[in-house]
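ok posting inputs for the iron/sulfur cluster job
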Amino acid sequence: MSLTETCAPAQAGAQSPEGGACDSGPPPARGNSEVRTDWTRDEIAALFDLPFTDLLFRAATVHRAHHAPDEVQLCTLLSIKTGGCPEDCGYCSQSASADSGVEATKLMDVRAVLQAAAQAKDAGSQRFCMGAAWRNPKDRDMPAIVEIVQGVRAMGMETCMTLGMLTPTQAAQLKDAGLDYYNHNIDTAPENYENVITTRSFEERIDTLANVREAGINVCSGGIVGMGETRAHRVGFVHALATLPRHPESVPVNALVPVKGTPLGDMLADTPMAKIDDIEFVRTVAVARITMPRSMVRLSAGRESMSEATQALCFMAGANSIFTGDKLLTAANAGDDKDAAMMAKLGLSPMRGEEPMRACEAAE
Ligand code: SF4
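and the output
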């Protein structure tokens, strides 16, 4: 895979992301539609360090070169198997080692999942994402998973699954079933990983992403900020994604939702200063946008407690995808009515067309 990929900007008449009056500060201009996978940590740190208004301007200009700035992709996320997970992710209420009160359930019935997908479609969702609290799917789970993917695809919706680590064989099975996306977050910077999760390694995460890519499934991968990490960790997190051989098509940026009974939730309750600052969160979104210009950058968990003004800054900084509905797995979400009102207020409309990376892929 080459270090750079180019594709015509999504919008006719799009301007140079590095042009005009906004060419001060690192990194230097490299062309208006170039997608780089050779970012250095220093370059990314320099973007984080820009004056906020400069950073926002640069991110918005990059965004407009590749995406329709007034469109936001709507996705719905359903937990199809909740709780009892053997992993120990420090932020997660579904870990068996958390004392969060989340009850473990079995994999949902296929018909119930398809019913939920139909409701999401009626509410305007373009993509139906399904999550199971597993370290990895067992082979005995795969027939039901395949049936779910086929059923949701048959409704004309895009499908995304997050099931934990995948073998190459399982990834190929999902591809054959028609799965469009696989979500597998890297969570945080490689050097911060063991402070968040001890039951698997960062390298295992990367291996599954490679298996998903190899199978030809689109990748959704991002992480969480506000877990008590440093700015340097946030630089490392964006760097890890922006230097993958091919950028993820979707990059969810979550703000930690502190859940009582989880190690990170309890830590934040004791040290409220560790909570991510809104401006620093917007900076993270903006740097993700600049370094991964064609990816969809998704505002995910934590949006429920964000003001509309902060969300508007995130959209300005290049976020263009949100989860809708009242729940995000086990956490509260903003809710359809609240989101519809916010989008109307901001003049945003649901995205209908193809994502830029997929459109480029089709054209190549
Ligand atoms: S984030 Fe996923 S893998 Fe980690 S404990 Fe929660 S359900 Fe399990």
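notes: Residues 85, 87, 89, 92, 94-95, 133, 164 surround iron/sulfur cluster (CB under 6 Å). The first strand starts at residue 4 and ends at 6.
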